[in-house]
Fold:
Amino acid sequence: MVRLLKEAETQAQKTGGQFAPPESGNGSFESFVDLHCERLVQCLTMIVLDPDLARDAAQEAFIRLYLHWDDVGNLRDPVAWLFKVGINRSKDIRRRAVRSARLLQRLSLAATEKHDPLPWHPETSFLELLRDLPARQRAAAALYYLADFSVSEIAQVMHVSEGSVNRHLFRARERVRKMLEVT
Structure:
């Protein structure tokens, strides 16, 4: 985050100290953020399984979007770019959190408890169902079911083939089905 703010300061210095937001209007930065913010945060929450980490990743993705607004606006699919950056930032944040947890574990020498899957009840949330899926399946399912991305859009965001996306979605559905049958 600090690095992103330094990039913004550097850009401000290049423009003579004036760091104005991207232009307002129909294709404005603000309208783009308003249109996609909630969906991005929801999707990232399903991927990282932590609403706070998801909000942090989304915020960093929007900062990057702000810094590169002129370039991103010329892309064929700026929404896919935003989601890709958000997913990458969430992976970075998650890695940092995992490293911190490992360090804490080593320092405290405490035994960790394995997360037991929750039994399904009608009030079980989508997040709880996706919790035990592998990361790639969870990402594909969140993008497909929550963000309403097509298979081709998901393939572009995840940098995999459409066949791989279909395989991840199929396996995710099968695992969720088996979890629901067990209870």
Observations:
- Confidence is low (pLDDT under 50) at residues 15-26, 109-116.
- The radius of gyration is 19 Å.
- The chain has two domains: 26-111, 118-183.
- The longest helix spans residues 78-108.
